[in-house]
Write a structure and sequence with these properties.
The structure is a homodimer. Chain A is α+β, with helices and mostly antiparallel strands. Helix content of chain A is 28%, strand content 25%. Chain A has 3 domains: 36-142 and 214-303, Aldehyde oxidase/xanthine dehydrogenase, a/b hammerhead (Aldehyde Oxidoreductase, domain 3), CATH 3.90.1170; 385-462 and 609-754, Aldehyde Oxidoreductase, domain 4, CATH 3.30.365.10; 464-604, Aldehyde Oxidoreductase, domain 4 (2-Layer Sandwich). The first copy, chain A, has 22 helices and 29 strands.
């Protein structure tokens, strides 16, 4: 549902409509090609041996028996990577430390988590490869694991990396530690402000590692050719990142690596990290043949993905008239086996929905003997929002103010200073909260025992970054659009629609194609909710380029100056001679007889990102006998800026809410004391299904981003931010118990409400 | 060998060197992917039933038995094409009449040549498909065929197309005829000039149909998706032409058709025509599965390719001081079953090497019951050059002038008026003939009986047309270049070299990739010797675009104006501050941290094509017992303009000469009286092998084309123009007999020299 705000006008022809996505039919008919569909002549199948231990030295790996198995063509370990000095790999693109990446994709001297890759085999069939894994003999020297973020921070804790020093305020510590870095943010004077607060609440929260749960496992097929050119077919959110990381890891020129992004069965951030391509590369190099690797679900859960488990202590203070004036937070996020948790984003987004003048936030990035975390939809933000929105809810309660009203009167808006120093541009937070306050859901009675209604707000930055694309005008007036971003959430459509809008032609006249890294200019990851924003902006620029070229061509045909020709609503016409005009298709038909082909190009790196806010309302009922929480009704409000394709915005809102509800109620990485993961299957790792959820109502409250030609903000991430607290606040209203440790599983509900273990 | 002319300077760093071609290793190791390598899930295999008759009505086609064979999924005929009115198909891109194309790829009511496609089958294996062909029952009503161009022009000849009228000087005739069109060219006053000539010679010539002889048979795999998008993987010289023709033939938007050009095993013009994709399309549409079609050699020879057989009458006159002053020619070219012989180009190129003020030339495009002709390397020119260079040779002899000297004193040069009206820009004809005159070969004695030396000249226009490409700068200073032209003769290298030269970086830093029609802007055919010229020009423009973008980025980094920064030899530097400079790679490494990706783009349609000339010298020995002509020594001179990659220019010169020698000595389509082709195999259709030929010496005499940034002319076609006459003139000197009917096969030599049949 698009809520018509007073500012909204129906000024677009294509934007705001709901055409069928270009890749839709291929996907529903099974014709779309995924990484697992790849089959090449002479192709080998790979398999990966993984550690059964959470923490151990690797004393020796004997691969001789495996190598002798008929059909096995190669067995590799970390030692098979080409020697590239660590200092060369520590630098570089983005924040990816390739020394750690190399140790993660095949363990070097230690295994650091249950499921850590140790060796790999390429064989003539997947069955032989799997069989050969059993013949690899690894001698381990077991070490004590550390699994919890608080334990790992303690002095005397088992140390994962002997060379890791805490990076603290730009300086490195001098003793080995599991704390990879300490971040510190300050705004105003929190200590002083707490002194002026009438109500102060301090609480502790914990969350567990949870997985993105993409339906398609990781895969990669790698062909290392005789002339040291690599082709990689795979499921990825960042083909160019894979390309650049592989080039550096293998010390090859960037243009020797071609990454072909296949269709993707979900990513949610978890398909940015690189796991299989380096292993496939050295197997292919050793065998001279293409090698295909596809993970099974257990491997996906044990060794890829999850986002951090966490510990947060948060204190907030308000005046008795309901003004939030101070916050003090400590956030410790599990990074898994290698540094890199999203604690920074957790710190910086936590207070985003609020105009709060004084805050001190400390963040800790902590390694533990669990899989290295990967990005997951608004990385870090749901965890900190869970803490913040729980405390805010409690403050509102203590002050006797309606929780939504409390949020409204403290809402951040244009000009509010953010923790990271900048002030907000025009944002839709206030309009969205007002819409929620006025909504049918919020005003509907909720009757019956064991029921409660909760609300929570959430903020996410969104991202800009680099996008490049181009588009060719065909002779019949259709347009072929070439993009470089994996289409996860319908971005072929949302980009094509912006090009069509710019050109004044139907969306169906534009055919978008996602191509490989050799076939289009650089594009940053499909992530950060940035594609419809930044690649859409590129489509606008590209369209303007085509408009200029079309006008110039018409001017040449009519023997007029370029300024004498204008482009209006898909018609190219002479300003002063009404008889001289071409429709887009008419002029397209004359391109090749009058000069060079007409191709629009654009390459952008937009900085004027519009922040995103989401506010969710949940009604729940808690079964006192089983402890099960049933979501009765759920409404997600969000400011998408201009909703380019409203149906896909709704889909993102519904998907984010669903994942957040799973995180709140059921999902968790369950570790045994020895550090082995006990629930590495979708049977035991419980994600919500359609049977578990009501229809998620999605309400778009559009406040166009003035920093984008069509007012776009990011859409995909922010809807996962509020649900954790939304559900917890609702469960509190139903049970009288504030759950500060996730998930709110039946076991925990029974324990907290009835003392049952 | 590159002959250093006085004008030539070593002013380039990359151009003129001989780097290894980017696709070389893939091709020699078998890793390159050709159309026959395609294998898709659920793919069916197609086979085509072909006519055993040269000329017949199709009374009935009964496909029921074939359709009932287990494994057969579809049987189609011409009636299965979607109904598109003929008037819609007769218009359009290039000169392709799609009504004829549709009738050629699957016969409608008549078969017009032996091998004409009649029906097609898709089945689960190629064997079943072939088996099913035998179960298709076709009832023919036989018609008398006409096989020779002169017979076909006679009144009362069997008529191929009841609706064909002669298009003569823009008007259509009113009675059915096999003469599709009559062309007429005039320059000066030939009748008057013949009156002033001291020597006049008139001769008649005939040539037979010959095939391009590409090693890779035609293939196409077509997938017609549920949403009416087609993907076609195939061997083609013109992916965009295939796309546009298929879209019109099937009445689909252009952007619904994606053509993926696979690597190509030779084309020589014969892989521009479309044969299999329409058939694959309707088979795929009917079955809902991808369908693969691959021809065998017999199909290739019977139903694709050849160039015209011909009849030419040519009269030329010269003054006694050796000045060519008049020419009168009649050229009749066989078009095969449908109009479209290259007689126009034959007429217009024939006199290209000469400054001859008065000429009248008539050309006739004539249909006969043989396969529809296709382009073949300098289409039409070798045939007319054979006639012209034979008569010129005879005139020189009668005038007692050395044949090369005679050519030199009549040579066309800058300003010479051509038959098509325009005058020559700077050309290398004179310099090339002088180089031949001064050469070791021409001055070497040729002793022994039955030996002779011949020379001949040849001219080809070359083409410009549309090219589009783009190139991205990667973070390590390498460049990914995206092109749309099938690489037949090393054009990945020759285009990349021009980009590298422009950027001042090594050729190895540029990685060229040929992509499909969805992934790059419009590119006209790989043909007309145009790729190194036009796509190379686009590479230059693209490089200049990158230089501008790199300077602008450096200016932004240094906080300077764009005009304060210059690009010199791959270094970006501040004009007034020697300390401020970046190498290309240094600045490349900073692109993504300082703004948008840097991508150069170019789209061109250059008009300033430089004409090409070739002069060949052959020494032959004729065995009086067997009639076999042995080529003892052969030297090809050519003006390539600037030779971008000299080794590939040499390769083109050697290849063209080899094909021309085969045409002169052995190759011919041999038809029985009933119109069946008697030699549709490489055993019976005799192409020269390495054992038949000496090393072809290649001498490049470079006269840069002032109409190209790097002086490029076309290279690939003109070397096939002189050999027919070169060999005939040499055989005359060895035997005293002027052979005016090709091929000069042993049979014909014995007949002409000894009266043996």
């Amino acid at each position: 549902m698009v809520l018509e705000t007073e500012k909204k006008q129906k000024k677009y022809k294509v934007i705001g409509t709901r055409p069928i996505r270009p890749d839709g039919l291929d996907k529903v008919t099974g014709r779309a090609r995924f990484g697992a569909d790849i089959d090449l002549p002479g192709m080998l199948h790979g398999a990966i041996l993984r550690s059964p231990h959470a923490h151990a030295h690797i004393v020796r790996i004997d691969t001789s028996k495996a190598a002798a198995l008929p059909g096995v063509k190669a067995v590799v370990t970390n030692a098979d990577f080409p020697h590239v000095p660590a200092e060369e790999l520590s630098l570089g693109e983005g924040a990816v430390n390739l020394v750690h990446l190399r140790q993660n994709v095949l363990a070097e001297d230690k295994v650091l988590y249950h499921g850590h890759a140790v060796a790999a085999v390429a064989a003539t069939s997947a069955h032989i490869a799997t069989e050969a894994l059993r013949l690899i003999d690894v001698t381990y020297e077991l070490l004590e694991p550390v699994l919890d973020v608080r334990d790992a921070m303690k002095q005397g804790s088992p140390i994962l990396h002997a060379d890791l020093r805490t990076r603290d305020m730009g300086k490195d510590g001098d003793i080995p530690s599991n704390i990879a870095s300490h971040l510190h943010f300050e705004l105003g004077d929190a200590d002083h402000a707490f002194g002026e607060a009438d109500v102060v609440i301090e609480r502790e929260f914990t969350t567990r590692m949870v997985h993105q749960g993409y339906i398609e496992p990781h895969n990669a097929t790698v062909s290392w050719d005789e002339d040291d050119h690599l082709t990689i077919w795979m499921s990825t959110q960042g083909a160019f990142n894979v390309r650049d990381q592989m080039a550096r890891l293998l010390r090859l020129p960037v243009h020797n690596v071609r990454v072909v992004p296949m269709e993707i069965g979900g990513g949610f951030g978890g398909k940015i990290s690189v796991y299989l391509p380096p292993v496939g590369a050295i197997l292919s190099h050793k065998t001279g043949r293409p090698v295909k690797l596809v993970m099974n679900r257990t491997e996906v859960l044990e060794a890829t993905g999850p986002t951090s488990g966490s510990y947060i202590k948060l204190k907030m203070g308000a005046t008795k008239d309901g003004r939030l004036i101070a916050a003090r937070g400590e956030l410790a996020y599990e990074a898994g086996a290698f540094p890199g948790s999203p604690v920074g984003a957790g710190c910086m987004t936590m207070l985003g929905p609020y105009d709060i003048a004084n805050a001190t936030i400390d963040g800790y990035d902590v390694v533990v003997n669990k899989p290295r975390v990967a990005a997951y939809r608004a990385p870090g933000a749901p965890i900190s929002a869970f803490a913040c929105e729980s405390v805010v809810d409690e403050l509102a309660e203590q002050l006797g103010i309606d929780p939504l009203q409390f949020r409204l009167q403290n809402a951040s808006k244009e000009g509010t200073r953010q923790l990271r120093g900048t002030t907000f541009p025009p944002i839709g937070n206030v309009a969205m909260i007002k819409a929620a306050l006025a909504s049918d859901h919020y005003n509907a009675p909720l009757e019956g025992p064991n029921r409660g209604r909760g609300v929570a707000n959430g903020f996410w930055f969104n991202a800009g970054m680099q996008s490049s694309l181009n588009a060719s005008v065909n002779g019949d007036g259709t347009v072929s659009l070439i993009e470089g971003n994996t289409d996860i959430g319908g971005t072929r459509a949302s980009i094509a629609m912006q090009l069509a809008e710019t050109l004044g032609i139907p969306m169906e006249a534009v055919r978008p194609t996602v191509v490989d890294t050799d076939s289009v200019g650089y594009n940053a990851v499909t992530g950060g909710s940035r594609i419809t924003f930044a690649s859409g902006w590129a489509a606008y620029e590209c369209g303007m380029d085509i408009r200029r070229l079309m006008c110039a061509r018409a001017a040449a045909i009519w023997d007029l100056g370029e300024d004498d020709v204008e482009y209006v609503d898909g018609v190219i016409r002479a300003r002063k001679d009404a008889a001289k005009k071409f429709t887009f298709a008419e002029l397209a038909g004359r391109i090749n007889s009058t000069g060079a082909p007409i191709i629009g190009n654009a390459s952008v790196s937009p900085q004027t990102v519009g922040g995103a806010f989401a506010l969710h309302i949940a009604d729940v009922e808690v079964d006192p006998e089983t402890g099960k929480v049933q979501v009765l009704r759920y409404t997600a409000f969000q400011d998408p800026g201009t909703a380019i394709h409203p149906a896909y915005v709704e889909g993102q809102m519904q998907g984010g809410a669903s994942q957040g509800i799973g995180w709140a109620l059921n999902e968790e990485y369950y570790y045994n004391a020895d550090g082995t993961l006990a629930n590495a299957s979708f049977l035991d790792y419980r994600m919500p299904t359609t049977l578990d959820l009501p229809m998620i109502d999605a309400v778009m409250v559009e406040t166009p981003n003035p920093g984008h030609p069509y007012g776009v903000r990011g859409v995909g991430e922010v809807p996962i931010v509020p649900p954790l607290a939304t559900i917890a606040n609702a469960v509190y209203r139903a049970t009288g118990v504030r759950f500060r440790d996730l998930p709110i599983s039946p076991r925990r509900v029974l324990k907290e409400t009835q003392g049952l273990e």
